[in-house]
Each structure stands twice: as C-alpha cells, then as structure tokens.
Amino acid sequence: MNIFINIYLGDKMKKSLLAALVLGSAFTLAACDQAKEKAAEVKEVAAQKADEAKAAVSEKADQAVEAAKDAKDAVVDKAVEVKDATVEKATELKDAAANKAAEVKDAVADKATEIKDAVSDKATEAKDAVSDKAAEVKDAAAQKADEAKEAAAEAKDAAKEAAAEAKDAAKEKAGQAADAVSEKVDAVKEAVTK
Fold first, then answer.
1. pLDDT of residue 155
2. In whole angstroms, how far apart are CA 183 and each of 173, 174, 178, 186?
3. What local confidence, expressed as pLDDT, does residue 181 receive?
4. How confident is the model at residue 51 (pLDDT cuts 50, 70, 90)?
5. From residue 62, how far is each of 13, 24, 53, 111, 150 by CA, in Å?
6. Which alpha helices (H) appear in the chain, and where do they start and end?
7. DSSP class of residue 80?
8. Distance (Å, rounded) from C-alpha 158 to C-alpha 120?
9. Per-residue b/e over 111-142, b at no fewer than 16 CB within 10 Å?
10. Is 53 exposed, middle or buried (0-12, 13-18, 19+ CB in 10 A)?
11. What ranges does the record list as Basic and acidic residues composition bias (predicted)?
C-alpha cells in the first residue's frame, strides 16, 4: 500500500507539472493560431495571454514545488514508517525463530532421552537374557559333569567288580591247575613206583 501511495504522489506531481506545461502550450498554440487569423488582436491577446500564462505557469510551478515538497515529505514519512514496520517485523521474526529453535531443542532433548532410556532398557533386557542363558548353560554343564562323574564311578565299580571276578576266576583256575598237577604228580609217582 505504501508503494501505491508513493506512486500516487509521484503521479500527482507529474500530472501537476504536465498540466502546467499543457496549459502553457495550449495558451501558446492558441495565441499562435489566433495570430495568423487576426494579427492585431493577436498582439494584445498574446501579451495578455502571455501574462496570464506566466502567472499560471508561475502559480503552477509554485504548486508543483509545493506538491513536490509535500510528496517528498510524504515519501520520507512513509519511508520512516516502512523502516519502523520492517524493524518491528524483523524483531518479531527473530523472536519467533528463537522460540521455535528452543522448542526444537527441547523436542530433540526429549527424543534423545527417550532413545537413551529405550537403549538402556534393551541393554538391560539383553544383559538379563545373556545372564539367564549363561545360568542355563552353567546348570546344564554341571548336570552333565555330575552325570559324567556318576558314569565314571559306575565304570570304576564295574571295573573293580570285573577285576575281582577275574581274580577269583584266576585263583580258581590256578587251584584247579594245581590240583590237576598234583594229581598228575601223584599218578606219575604211582606209575614210577610200580
């Protein structure tokens, strides 16, 4: 709107100057045309019209100068208004940007806290899962070790039992062999004595 007012004031001033020039030109042309038709009347009318034109031009020039001064003052006033409005708007935009930046910063901080808490919870869950799995593996290993110990003890007992049985069998066989040898010796002795 300020631009339209400035253009309007500029156009108004231009129109005033143009009107003064057109009026002066019209008077001059009118005087020239009448001079051709009536030479005597033209001199009087021309002098009169020239004076009137001079007065009109002088008046219009004064009006144009006054209009230019008014337009200049209006432009300066509008420029000051525009400057003040621009500074005010810039301050508003700066404050709005600062507020928005603070909101974004807070939102980012909140999101970072949420992510940190979520990661911490997941890490705790993973740690607990690993701990539980380690306990299961440990228990399974202990159970397998116990089973292996029991199997070794059973194997040892079976080996002892087998060794005792083999020893007893060997003694029995040795006794039987000794008896057989003894019987053979007796038979040989008997056969020799006969």
1. 84
2. 15, 14, 8, 5
3. 80
4. confident
5. 12, 14, 14, 72, 129
6. 2-37, 39-193
7. H
8. 56
9. eeeeeeeeeeeeeeeeeeeeeeeeeeeeeeee
10. buried
11. 148-174, 181-194
CA gap 173, 171 in Å, rounded? 5
CA atoms within 13 A on the CB side of 182: 6
Q: What is the pLDDT of residue 43?
A: 65
Distance, C-alpha 94 to centroid of its chain: 21
Q: pTM of the full predicted structure?
A: 0.31
Closest listed residue to residue 63, CA positions, set 10, 24, 20:
20
Amino acid at 116: K
Q: State the Cα–Cα distance between residues 194 and 188, nearest whole angstrom.
A: 10
For residues 139 and 136, give the distance between their C-alpha atoms in angstroms, rounded to a whole number.
5
Residue 80 CA to its chain's centroid (Å) = 40
What is the C-alpha radius of gyration for the chain, rounded to an integer number of angstroms?
Answer: 66
Within 8 A by CB and 6+ apart from 19, the residues are 60
Dihedral angle, C-alpha 182, 186, 188, 190, nearest 10 °: 180
